Amino acid sequence: MKPRIFPTKPELGKAAAAEGAVLIREALAARGEANIIVATGASQFEMLEALTAEPGIDWSRVTGFHLDEYVGLPITHPASFRAYLWQRFVSKLPLPLRAFHFLDAEISPEAECARVGAILLGHPVDVAFIGIGENGHIAFNDPPADFETEEPYLVVGLDEACRRQQLGEGWFPTLDSVPRRAVSMSVRQILKSAAIVCTVPDLRKAEAVRKSLQGPVTPAVPASVLQLHPDCRLFLDSAAASLLS
After folding, report:
1. Does residue 38 contact residue 6 with C-beta atoms inside 8 Å?
2. Residue range 45-84, pLDDT digits in tens
3. Which of 103, 145, 194, 235 pairs as cysteine with 16 (C-beta 3.0–4.6 A)?
């Protein structure tokens, strides 16, 4: 997992999107279809904007999957990841996707895990677009993450560091208003992706990046498991990479 480092967030996002677009085109050329996982959050703004503008992708042959979503949050809430993905990705594409499988965890999160998980099992993932949280999480797998479950999706608790990140990024007005549970793709399911494009900007992620790349593989730093993936492509800006030796 050798990182590529860029001076600015726009350059980082454009490079990560271009790399992911190549992988999508290769899957389309090889199999006639592609399956992708799409992340959310402030770290993905520039990457998703660039990805939707990438030329030469027949999006009508691409199926997308949602990485994670808060439990109990309606789609009308400003922090809804369903709304985020519609506004910043799905609705911006030049062609409609073959399908996008949103996670609706508002009412019955366990049932939603089973529903979307069953669909995902029939769609081997070509590219997973993900990030790394301030506490080292991938998706909403906060430390100590479950590295063992084979379930595609699970209901997880959010630790205070994760909830403070959501507050700090401006998604919620107070810490008490940040949900305490979420539906998340599992660590093992993420690792089943043929390729992972991991986009991580900002100084506030620097310590998590250092531990994930240069520390041991441990559930205490969930993103450290990416060291075990055979094709994880890590894109950092100079701030996020500032603590790497």
Report:
1. no
2. 999 999 999 999 999 999 999 999 999 999 999 999 999 9
3. 235
pLDDT score of 21 more than 90: yes
The whole-angstrom separation of Cα 120 and Cα 13 is 26
Can you give the residue ranges of every domain in the chain? 3-203+228-237
Is CATH 3.30.230.10 what the domain over 3-203+228-237 is classified as, yes or no? no
Helix (H) / strand (E) element for 22: namely: helix 9-31
137 Cβ contact list (under 8 Å, min separation 6): 143, 145, 162, 222, 223
Q: Give the pLDDT score at 1.
A: 80
Cβ contacts of residue 24 below 8 Å, gap of 6+? 34, 36, 57, 62, 126, 127
Mean pLDDT over the full length of the chain? 97
Q: Of 59, 18, 48, nearest to 131 (Cα)?
A: 48
Q: 220: how many CB neighbours lie within 10 A of its CB?
A: 14
- Tokens for 207, please give them: 């310590």
CA-to-CA distance for 218 and 225, rounded, in angstroms?
7
Beta strands in 68-190 (DSSP E): 68-70, 99-101, 127-130, 153-157, 181-185
Query: 30: how many CB neighbours lie within 10 A of its CB?
Result: 10
